[in-house]
Amino acid sequence: CGGEVSSSAGRITSPGYPRYYTSGLRCQYKIRRPDPGTCTVELDFRVFDVGTSAGCSEDYLQMPDQTRLCGSQTIAKALDYSAIGSDVMTLTFVTDSIGAGRGFDIVVRQLPNSCSILPPPPSCDVTISDERSVIHSPNYPDDYPADALCVYTIKRLDSSVCQLRVDFLDFDLEPAQDCGSDFVQLEKNGKRHCGVRAPPTSVLTFDGDVLRMVFRSDSVSSRRGFEARIRQLRNSCYRPIGPANPRLCGTYSDQSAVLQSENFPLLYPANTDCEYRIMRHGPQVCQLELNMVHFDLASDNRAACDRDYLEVKGTRYCGNRDGQRVLVDFPRNKNEIVLNFKTDSYQQLSGFRIEAKQLTSGCPPAENKTCDATFGSETFQIISPGYQSGSYPDNSDCSYTVKKSTFQVCALQVKFYTFDLEQSEDCAKDYLEIGEQKICGRVEYDSIRTFEFLEDETTIKFHSDSFKNGAGFFLLLEQKTC
Question: What is the DSSP letter of 55?
Answer without folding.
Answer: G
